[in-house]
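Item description
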Amino acid sequence: SIGGDFFDYLALADGRTGFAVGDVSGKGAPAALLTAVVQGILATQASYGGGPAVALTRINDVLIRRSLESRFVTMFFAELAPDGRLTYSNGGHNPPFLVRAGSTQRLEVGGLICGLFPAATFDEETVQLEPGDRVVIFSDGISEALNAAGEEFGDARLLACLERPAGASAQ
């Protein structure tokens, strides 16, 4: 089946790598088509520079101008520099986890979802990654997955898996 979840990465200037995960509203072919459009917008806007918050602002502006009723996208976009600096902006997406030795934090800085609010603004944050740090990005397909009893997997269970010692079994 096709839908609106996507992951993308981009080679940027100065050896930086951009990466994004997003979820376009809706299902099927309409969501998949808008996903392709959003990925194209992201590739273009990220190449102009300015950082993740600027890229999300530009994506929001383009989607607003297209006037796609009831169509929006949640998106997390980050740029990773060769020295380990991670600059990110979260446009209403599931906040990724930054898992470090002894601590875990959510990467929540950003703004609203893209494509619904003309005056939406986005902030960004830079964190310094160290060897062994893990950034875990995901879509609601993980946290909203149901078990046989109809219970959602949820963020708490995902976090519990991530906080297990390195090398722990996937089971």
